[in-house]
UniProtKB/TrEMBL annotation:
One Pfam family hit: TetR_N
Native species: Nocardia jiangsuensis
DNA-binding region per UniProt: 33-52
Protein name as annotated: TetR/AcrR family transcriptional regulator
InterPro entries on file: Homeodomain-like_sf, HTH-type_TetR-like_transc_reg, HTH_TetR, MT1864/Rv1816-like_C, Tet_transcr_reg_TetR-rel_C_sf
Keyword Transcription tagged: yes
Domain (HTH tetR-type) ranges: 10-70
Keyword Transcription regulation: yes
Amino acid sequence: MNRPRAYHHGDLRAELLERAEATLRTSGVDSLTLRQLARETGVSHAAPNRHFRDKQALLDALALVGFERLAALYADAAIDGTFPERVFATARIHFRFAVDNPALLTLMFSRKNSADVGTELAAAMQQTFASAITLMAEGQSSGEVVPGDPVRLSMLLAAAVHGLADFVVSGFLTEDVAEELLRETITNFILGFRLQS
């Protein structure tokens, strides 16, 4: 008879999150359970509860991982060039992340996050999109973007990027066509930002 391994399992929390994300990607959020993750990692059923008190805590932690990963993609990208080129490069990072991680992205922006980590998730989201908001503010300073709340302007653009990514994930558009539309979307948004001034 196979007995569950002892709790000393290396970084169990990281492994649980990794396996949870794999399940999220292949089977969806409804298939995630702490008991199943315990079986998959070979630990006792109680071991995951040392890191996540319940499934919602696990989902909140996964959402944080998603924001951290997206923030790292922004931070690692050396985005230079003209304002339109920088906006396109930033939007493309978000687009690629959304296409490659649709279930995780949905979880990240879900309103089902528990109140206990609401502040932490809000801070992670703010940090993730700080560079995009700063870029929009720089565009305003240089006269390339109309005055207004740079957060709201960034959200308008993010909504369009999300929509294109959703079209790809649903099979409505191919990635090649969506990439072309992404460039057109950015061009039209930038023209719109200018025309309103």
